[in-house]
Design a protein that fits this description.
It contains nine helices and 54 strands. The chain is mainly beta. Helix 3 packs parallel to helix 4 and helix 8 packs parallel to helix 9.
Length: 752
C-alpha cells in the first residue's frame, strides 16, 4: 500500500491486519499479490498502477494471514521523587519513577547515577623526598642538617603550598641495621618528626607520609628475601603510624610494604609503597593488586625505590616492569615514583586508554650527598595538569632544565561516568519503580536517570539531580597498647563515619596476651563494645601478658584539671598472686600512646604517689602505672593500666607559647625546692644541637637529660630524681644547658 500522506501510528494499526478491497482516501497504489504465478501484479482497490516482480528469490503462496504483531515502546518514565534539583536529601534516598506501557506489558526499570561534582578542587602539592642516605649517614659531604632543612621547609610551606602528602623514595639511610648502631635512624627520626608534629604542621596528625624501603635500608644491602629491616621497623614500623587515620596497614608481619590513604584537592588517594626487590614477589604484587581493586574509587600512586633509570623514556628495572605489568589494568593508577639511580628520568605508558606516569629523581651523586634537592609536584585540578619542579631548601635554588621542570597532563575535573545502581523488574504498567541509593556523601550533588524496557524496546528518561544533606563526619583512631599485645578491629572499618553511626570494636589479644580494658573515648573491660560516633574519637585497648599483675589506675582517671605547681595524689591498685613490690608511675602529655616521662620509678606499691604537677600544660594527659611481680615462682612479668580518659593541666600563662622564639633560654618549670625530680623547659630560635646535663654539688655528672639536634621552638626535659645507683640524695643540684655559643646554668634543691 502506498498513500499520498504520512499516516499516524493509530491509522497504521487500524488497518494493518484488514484487507482493503475498495478505494480509500489517499490510497494511490495497492497490490493484492493474489495472482498466484508469473511476475506481473495488478493494481487493486481502485488503483491502476501495475507492477512487475523482479529477482528469483520468491515463491507464490495462497492467502494472506493478516496476523502481523507490533510493539509500542514504553512511555518515558515520570519522576516521582526526589524532586529535581532538591536539596537536603537524605544520604540514602529512595529514587522513584512511574512507568507505563501503551500495550499494558510489565516493565523493567534500571537506575543509573553518578556524583555531579564538576567544579575542580583547589591546587595542592605532593613532595617527593629522594634518597637521603648521605644526609642521615653524614657521608660524602652530607649532614643531617640538610635533611632538617628539607623537613623544616616542608613544614614552613605546608599551608601556603597546600602540601597534602610527602612521598619518600627509598634509601632513608646508608647502612640499614648497621651492625646494631642506629645513629643514622636517629637522624632520620629527628628529621621526619618535624613533618608529623601537630605543632609544626598545624595538623592533628601532622602530614601524611611513610618511609619507602630502599636497598640501603636492608641488611644485607639489596636482598629483601634474606635481609633484615630491624631498625627500619623499630623507627618507622607500624607502631609509629597505627592509629593515624591516613595509615592503611601493611603486608605480612612487618611494615616493609605499606599503604596510606589521604584526601587533597577534593580527591581521594591511595598510596602503596613496595620494598626494593630485584625479583618482585608475586604475593606482594597480588596484595597491591587487591588494594587497587578495594580502593578503585581512589586515585592511586605507587612508590618504590627502583622503577626506572635516567632519561626520557627511562628504561624499566625488573621491579618496575613487573609492577607495571601487574597493576596496569587498574584505571585508577596514574603515578609511580622512585629514586635509586643518580639523575632524573621519566616515562609514560598507556594501557586500555589509561596513562601511567613514572618519575625518577635521585641527587645523591651531587655535591654534599645531594644538596637537599626535592621534587615538588603541584596538582592543578582546574587545569588538569601536574606541575613538576625541583628545589633545594639547603641551597635555596630551583633547577629549570627540562628534566627538572616539566608538566604532566592528568585529568582531575572530568565528571564521573554513570554507573548502574540497580534494577526493578516486573513493574506493572502505570506502577512505580523504587530503588534506595545508599552510601552517598553529605552536602554533595548527584545526578540520575532511568531506562524503561518492555523486553523489546527501551526508553531512556531525562536526567534529574539533587544535593544531599550536610551530615558531620568523624574519624576513629584505634590503638593497641602495647602494639605487640593484640589488635583492635572496628566494624565497619572506614576512614570517616557519619554523625550518629555505631561502630563495634573488638579487641583480639595475641598469643600469650590477654585483653584488660579500654581507655580514651571508651572505658571498661567489655569486649566487644559499641561506640556511637558523635565526634572524632580515639580508643586504646590495653593488653597485658597472661599472668602479669592486675593494675587499675583510679586517679587521675579522666576529666580532672590539675594545677601546675600543686601536689596531686596519683592512686592505683596493683595485685598479683605473688604480690607486687614495686611500681613505676609515668605521665603522657600527648594521649594514651605517649611518649611517657617517668614520675617515679621502682617505688613501693603503696597505692598512691604524691606528684608535684609540672610544666608544660596539656589537654590530653594520661597516667600510666606499671607493676612488677617479684618473679619468685615464675618469670618476671609486668602489668600496667592507664587513666580511662584524658585529664588536663592548664598552662599558668596563656598566649605566651603563641609568640615566636627569638632567643636561647632555659627555666625550671617544677617547684624549687623539689621533692620529686625536676622539670625544665628550653627555647631555641633556630635548629641547633643541644646538650642538657645535671650535676651534683661536687660537680659530678648525674645524668645527661638531652643530647640531640632540636628544631626551633619550645622543648622540655625532666629528671626523675634518680641516679644510676638508685634514688638521688637530698642536696643542691645544677642543670647546665649548652648550645653553640650559649651556656645557661640553673640551680635547684632536692629535699627528700
Amino acid at each position: 500500500r502506498i498513500w499520498n500522506a504520512a499516516r499516524t501510528q493509530s491509522d497504521i494499526q487500524g488497518t494493518i491486519n484488514a484487507q482493503i478491497s475498495t478505494p480509500a482516501a489517499g490510497l494511490v497504489a495497492r497490490w493484492a499479490l493474489d495472482e498466484g504465478s508469473g511476475t506481473a501484479v495488478g493494481g487493486s482497490a481502485g488503483t491502476s498502477v501495475n507492477g512487475t516482480i523482479t529477482g528469483t528469490a520468491y515463491a507464490w503462496v495462497s492467502g494472506a494471514p493478516f496476523n502481523l504483531a507490533f510493539n509500542l515502546p514504553p512511555s518515558a518514565p515520570a519522576l516521582v521523587g526526589p524532586a529535581d534539583q532538591a536539596t537536603d536529601v537524605p544520604l540514602s534516598p529512595t529514587l522513584q519513577v512511574s512507568a507505563a506501557d501503551p500495550d499494558g506489558q510489565s516493565l523493567t526499570v534500571q537506575f543509573y547515577g553518578r556524583s555531579a561534582v564538576s567544579s575542580p578542587g583547589t591546587d595542592f602539592t605532593i613532595i617527593g623526598m629522594p634518597d637521603t642516605q648521605y644526609y642521615t649517614g653524614e657521608l660524602n659531604g652530607g649532614t643531617n642538617a640538610i635533611l632538617l632543612s628539607q623537613t623544616n621547609w616542608i613544614t614552613a610551606n605546608r599551608a601556603s603550598r597546600n602540601i597534602g602528602y610527602v612521598a619518600t623514595l627509598g634509601d632513608c639511610v646508608e647502612h640499614g641495621d648497621n651492625g646494631g648502631n642506629d645513629i643514622e635512624w636517629q637522624h632520620a627520626d629527628a628529621g621526619y618528626s618535624l613533618i608529623e608534629n601537630p605543632l609544626t604542621t598545624g595538623l592533628p596528625e601532622g602530614l601524611p607520609y611513610g618511609i619507602t624501603v630502599g636497598n640501603h635500608d636492608q641488611s644485607p644491602n639489596g636482598n629483601p628475601d634474606g635481609a633484615t629491616t630491624v631498625f627500619y621497623n623499630q623507627y618507622f614500623g607500624a607502631n609509629r603510624f597505627t592509629g593515624r587515620t591516613y595509615y592503611g596497614g601493611h603486608y605480612g608481619s612487618n611494615n616493609d610494604n605499606w599503604f596510606n590513604l589521604f584526601r587533597a584537592g577534593g580527591m581521594d588517594f591511595v598510596v602503596i609503597s613496595l620494598e626494593y626487590d630485584t625479583t618482585p614477589d608475586a604475593a606482594i604484587l597480588d596484595w597491591a593488586d587487591g588494594l587497587l581493586t578495594t580502593y578503585a574509587n581512589r586515585r592511586a600512586i605507587v612508590l618504590s625505590h627502583n622503577f626506572i633509570g635516567t632519561g626520557n623514556p627511562g628504561a624499566w628495572s625488573a621491579q618496575g616492569q613487573a609492577t607495571y605489568d601487574r597493576l596496569k589494568t587498574h584505571s585508577n593508577l596514574f603515578l609511580m615514583l622512585c629514586g635509586h639511580v643518580p639523575g632524573e628520568g621519566r616515562r609514560s605508558d598507556t594501557f586500555n586508554g589509561n596513562t601511567v606516569y613514572t618519575l625518577m629523581s635521585d641527587y645523591q651523586g651531587r655535591t654534599n650527598g645531594g644538596n637537599g634537592w626535592l621534587r615538588i609536584m603541584q596538582f592543578s585540578p582546574a587545569n588538569n595538569v601536574i606541575h613538576v619542579s625541583t628545589y633545594s631548601p639547603w641551597l635555596n635554588q630551583t633547577e629549570n632544565d627540562a628534566d627538572s621542570q616539566f608538566d604532566v597532563p592528568y585529568s582531575m575535573s572530568a565528571a564521573e561516568p554513570y554507573a548502574l545502581l540497580g534494577t526493578s523488574a516486573g513493574v506493572a504498567s502505570g506502577g512505580t519503580a523504587s530503588l534506595v541509593w545508599s552510601g552517598l556523601a553529605g552536602g554533595m550533588p548527584y545526578q540520575w536517570y532511568t531506562t524503561v524496557s518492555d523486553g523489546v524496546a527501551t526508553v531512556t528518561g531525562p536526567t534529574w539531580g539533587f544535593t544531599t544533606q550536610v551530615v558531620p563526619t568523624h574519624t576513629l583512631a584505634v590503638v593497641s597498647a602495647p602494639a605487640a599485645g593484640g589488635a583492635v578491629t572496628p566494624n565497619p572499618n572506614r576512614a570517616a563515619y557519619d554523625e550518629g553511626s555505631v561502630v563495634q570494636l573488638t579487641a583480639s589479644p595475641a598469643s600469650g596476651w590477654e585483653f584488660r580494658s579500654w581507655c580514651g573515648d571508651a572505658a571498661g573491660s567489655a569486649n566487644p563494645i559499641s561506640l556511637t560516633m558523635s565526634r572524632d574519637k580515639r580508643v586504646t585497648a590495653i593488653f597485658n601478658e597472661i599472668g602479669a599483675p592486675l593494675v587499675a589506675v583510679s586517679a587521675p582517671n579522666g576529666g580532672e584539671a590539675l594545677a601546675i605547681g600543686s601536689l596531686y595524689e596519683i592512686r592505683w591498685s596493683a595485685e598479683d598472686a605473688e604480690g607486687v613490690e614495686l611500681v613505676d608511675v609515668l605521665l603522657s602529655r600527648n594521649g594514651p600512646s605517649g611518649p611517657f616521662e617517668t614520675l617515679g620509678e621502682g617505688i613501693e606499691n603503696t597505692g598512691s604517689f604524691l606528684w608535684n604537677v609540672s610544666y608544660p600544660g596539656t589537654a590530653n594527659g594520661y597516667v600510666k602505672v606499671v607493676a612488677h611481680n617479684p618473679a619468685v615462682l615464675s618469670p618476671s612479668l609486668s602489668g600496667f593500666d592507664l587513666s580511662d580518659a584524658a585529664f588536663t593541666i592548664p598552662d599558668l600563662v596563656t598566649g605566651v607559647d603563641d609568640q615566636p622564639v627569638t632567643a636561647f633560654s632555659m627555666r625550671m618549670t617544677s617547684s624549687n625546692p623539689t621533692s620529686n625530680g625536676a622539670s625544665l623547659a628550653f627555647e631555641l630560635p633556630r635548629t641547633e644541637r643541644v646538650r642538657v646535663e645535671l650535676f651534683d654539688a661536687a660537680g659530678r655528672l648525674v645524668e645527661t637529660l638531652a643530647d640531640a639536634a632540636y628544631p626551633m621552638g619550645r622543648h622540655s626535659v625532666r629528671w626523675g630524681g634518680r641516679t644510676p645507683h638508685g634514688q638521688a640524695p637530698s642536696g643542691v643540684y645544677f642543670v647546665r644547658f649548652r648550645a653553640p655559643g650559649h651556656t645557661i646554668t640553673r640551680r635547684f634543691v632536692l629535699v627528700r
